[in-house]
Design goal:
The chain has helices at 2-16, 31-34, 61-64, 83-96, 123-130, 139-148, 168-177, 214-225, 230-242, 244-250, 255-266, 278-293, 345-357, 382-386, 419-432, and strands at 39-47, 50-55, 72-76, 108-113, 152-157, 186-191, 205-211, 270-273, 298-304, 307-311, 316-319, 324-326, 331-337, 363-367, 390-394, 400-402, 409-410. By secondary structure, the chain is α/β, with parallel strands linked by helices. Helix 5 (123-130) crosses helix 6, helix 8 crosses helix 9 and helix 11 packs across helix 12 (278-293). Residues 78-226 form the NACHT domain. InterPro entries: NACHT_NTPase (IPR007111), P-loop_NTPase (IPR027417). This is NACHT domain-containing protein.
């Protein structure tokens, strides 16, 4: 049964990594053509509040360097720093084997992406689930193989992504971390800081990925994207330079520095525009995701002609690029700039539903667009009223505030907007923007 499990696991990794989520269109045979190492460090001393980290020569050192010799290793890295790419490379090393492989001597390699294990009753069922549906192996077969096999390496990718789920699998993962389960197996866990498990075996070794410097970025571009096309490499480098968010994060080393940069970026208005490239939009969305995950307040998000629709069922704004803006838990102000005169009340209500899903939102503002004088269905505004979210409108040079209880627009002084004032604002807005 051991050889059957090994065979089916290898087949599973070929399928799994044919379309890995973070790295598009990469298969196991081609992984080595795209894997570029960034900085890797190991914690060598942790006395008091002072941590001392030292560089590791290569990703192979994760298993081979005596400083990190242990059956339990935790790899920490921020989003986009290469955790999943590293697990892909480890799977490749095991599949191919031979001289230079860091996994020589490992009989069974089990790689699992934790976020995909929701609803599975045990760690053994997780392994079973990763095999083909017509596998001849049962859960008991897998248990027995693992009980008898002398050399097993577990790689659990994205342990922090399972924190919110209460289940037997979570208990199994905690038991593995604390070396109560599979104490004789090697286990490598990946997680995003600051979500390093507080409870783990005293013998655990901590490793972190520190990102990519300019030389490594260029190496990746040439190896993966531009295939040594100097002109193309330079064009993409210029795009990165035009993207202050992505550029800043690509130059960052430690996770502490990343968070300080994210806080600085989020203290100022963050812009998403329809003229932005998808690269820039993805980078901006990534910053917002980091901020939300780490409870960093985003002062203001400004959407410039960027909205295509609202997916109410998922509390997401679909951008004109096709990318999606999820509900923002730490956003303070949402500003929507759209030169439009065809917004229906239902469309605006969908935007209000999205706004209400943003946990700490204080206001949502619309500018350079035309609005109905009154919203007839004020019940759809009740959640905004309960959360004390202001709705503001800047049709031209004057601002108005929506009375969420009556559905009418008002001056900031509290007096209701008249029909004459509405017509005047419409005329002025059309003069400023003839396309309206």
């Amino acid at each position: 049964m051991e050889q059957q499990l090994i065979k089916e696991l290898k087949e599973a990794y070929h399928r799994l990594y044919a379309h890995p989520h973070p790295i598009a269109s990469v298969n196991v045979k081609a992984v080595n053509n795209v894997f570029i190492e960034g900085g890797i460090e190991c914690l060598v001393n942790n006395s008091g509040n002072v941590e001392k980290w030292e560089s590791l020569e290569t990703y192979r050192s994760i298993r081979l360097d005596p400083r990190v010799k242990s059956n339990r290793r935790i790899i920490e890295a921020g989003p986009g720093c290469g955790k999943t790419a590293l697990t892909v490379q480890l799977a490749r090393d095991w599949l191919i084997g031979g001289p230079g492989s860091s996994l020589n001597g490992v009989k069974v390699l089990i790689v699992m992406k934790i976020c995909e294990l929701v609803g599975v009753p045990s760690i053994y069922e997780c392994i079973k689930q990763s095999l083909q549906s017509d596998s001849i192996l049962t859960v008991n077969n897998i248990k027995e193989v693992l009980r008898q096999t002398s050399s097993v390496l577990f790689v659990l990718d994205g342990v922090d992504e399972y924190i919110d789920y209460g289940s037997k699998v979570k208990n199994d993962i905690l038991a593995i971390i604390e070396e109560e389960m599979f104490p004789h197996f090697e286990v490598v866990l990946t997680t995003r800081p600051p979500n390093v498990p507080e409870r783990y075996s005293k013998d655990v070794k901590r490793i972190r990925l520190t990102g990519f410097d300019r030389l490594t970025q260029d190496k990746y571009l040439r190896k993966v994207v531009t295939k040594d096309d100097d002109d193309a490499t330079e064009r993409i480098r210029e795009s990165l330079q035009d993207n202050p968010i992505l550029g800043d994060l690509c130059r960052i080393g430690s996770s502490h520095a990343v968070m300080e940069t994210v806080k600085e970026l989020c203290s100022k208005p963050i812009h998403l525009s329809h003229v932005d490239s998808k690269l820039l939009q993805r980078s901006t969305l990534q910053i917002l995701a980091i901020a939300s995950h780490n409870k960093v307040t985003v002062a203001r998000l400004m959407l410039h002609e960027a909205i295509d629709s609202v997916d109410v069922s998922r509390n997401e704004i679909v951008l004109t690029s096709g990318l999606r803006l999820s509900s923002q838990t730490t956003l303070g102000q949402l500003w929507i700039e759209m030169i439009a005169n065809n917004w229906t009340e239902q469309y605006l209500q969908d935007l209000f539903i999205y706004a209400a899903s943003c946990e700490h939102l204080s206001s949502v503002a619309f500018s350079f667009c035309l609005m109905p004088r009154r919203f007839s269905d004020v019940s759809s505004l009740s959640t905004l009223h309960e959360k004390k979210v202001q709705v503001l409108w800047y049709p031209s040079l004057v601002s108005f505030r929506l009375n969420i209880q009556t559905g009418f627009w008002e001056h900031t002084s509290g007096s209701q907007m008249t029909d004459e004032e509405l017509e005047r604002e419409i005329t002025m807005c059309k003069e400023m923007y003839p396309t309206l």
